Amino acid sequence: MKEQSTTKGFAILSLAGILAKLLSLLYVPLLQAIIGTGGYGIYQKTYEIFTFLYAVLNLGIQTAVAKYISELMAMNNHRDAQRTFRLARTLLLLVGTGISIILIVSAKFIAVNTGSPRIFMGLITLAPAIALTSVLCVYRGYFQGKGIMTPLAVSQVVEQFMNVAASLLFAYIFIKYGVEKGSAGGTVGTSLGAFIAIVYLIYIAAIERIDRKVYNQDKDIKRVRTKTIIKKLGMYGLPIALSAGLQNFGAVVDMTNVTKRLLYAGFTEDQGNVLYGILGYYKTLLYVPLTIITALATAVMPAIVRALVVKDKKTMKEKILFAIRISYDVAIPAAFGLAILSSEIYKVLFGKTTGSQLMLYGSIVVVFMAIVQIQNTILQAVNKFYFVVGSLCIGIVLKIVSNYILIGYKDINIQGAVVGGVLCFFVPMILNHRKMCKTLKFKFSLLRVASKPILSSLAMTIVILLLKISVFGIMNTYLGEGRIVNSIILFIAIALGGITYLYAMISTGGITKKEMDSLSPKVSRMMPGFLKRRLR
């Protein structure tokens, strides 16, 4: 299987990420219908703990495996790239299994001490997923490092499909025994999805005979000692794991913080779970556009690492500016769209507009999250690991302090999380940008790069507002406000808004024919004539 270009890899991963996220979005209202908003709040709290453990153990090692394999591949050291993969797979299986056992044993203690005793059963059912996802992340890091994105992308869709199907089934089976068991049943698919994805990647590696093809290609290259491989994985993985761990530990602390501050504000535990569930909806929607940013980060990281190894500064600069610009191209219209269509989105997905104000005021966080994610990938690729840790720490502290103050006011309650989210990512974004410019010795303005997407998004917003005032108002008056009608309205708004944004971007030179063709020549050929004529 051949290595794929950054743009092609990005396109493949984006498509897979969108499909996986669509499955996830369909899953949320169905799960909520089964276990209720309070049950979904319990489910969200359970996942905060799991995500923390997952991030500490897996995100660091996946990036470390991908980064070191990219370095070895740049030096044509294929054999040691294979050794790195096999060694990491063994180590992560052992460590992941150990952490799964620890989580099962300490589930009660964690549940009680986070102020959420009802997540106890969910932590136990999620525990096996730690070991399984550890092995899965090593496989994904291996394919990522070699620049082979198709198996990685397919594994994401396979994993999410199995996750959704199994989680809904077990939630439905166990809800009859109580809300806690129903929400715990909704976590079972995480383990099954990871297992099926591992089986798929093992199969791909076997039929491609990846291990055997490379043994005779690098006979004259000096072998890397096992000790050196472990040291490199640790040197790369530890700070990345620390960054991911801090970010997700901040989420766990914030979960406890939010829960206790809601109680302090005068809400009961059940009311607090409902409000946390509403916050969960907001977070789920924020991460939809970030699926594309994650795909971009995954695809661009090996290219930056290889450019660093061979000292190709021109390529490195091109890849970095490409990543920042695409991040804006995706995140800015997403933020505008989520804000202006917040009510319609909530009606379609959750059957009500409760909580849509969070999205109306807080969608801007998507932009800051997207840029910080890409900045972190770039800084890690050029070995500025601990700076990322420091900037994340500052953001997390600001978020926790802000939430502690604001959520404690009953009139503000969960809406205070918007301010915390802005502070958590805006400040690190500024710090990261200054560090990047200093380290890479080239300057660019974040605001200038964002100007064309902002102007195009404003044009898109005007079109959607006009539709809401005229056509959509009439449709609601005569056809009612059921989910089917709102789904049609939302589809029309997204389609026309997307065409308007694309037309404005092409007209202003924000998107060129060369860039469209670099993703796939088929894309520009499939475009309507009025858009093709604007491409240059």
TrEMBL record:
Membrane-topology annotation of the record: Multi-pass membrane protein
Q: Does the keyword Membrane apply?
A: yes
Main localization, broad class: membrane
Q: Which domain of life is it from?
A: Bacteria
State what protein this is by name: Polysaccharide biosynthesis protein
Which InterPro entries has this protein been placed in? Answer: PG_synth_SpoVB (IPR024923), Poly_Biosynth_Transport (IPR050833), Polysacc_synth (IPR002797)
Tell me the leader sequence span: none
Positions of transmembrane segments: 12-43, 49-70, 91-112, 118-139, 160-179, 185-206, 233-253, 285-305, 326-346, 358-378, 385-406, 412-433, 454-478, 484-506
Instruction: List cellular component terms (GO).
Output: plasma membrane
Entry keyword set: Cell membrane, Membrane, Transmembrane, Transmembrane helix
Pfam families xrefs: Polysacc_synt
**Compartmental location:** Cell membrane
This chain's source organism reads Clostridium manihotivorum
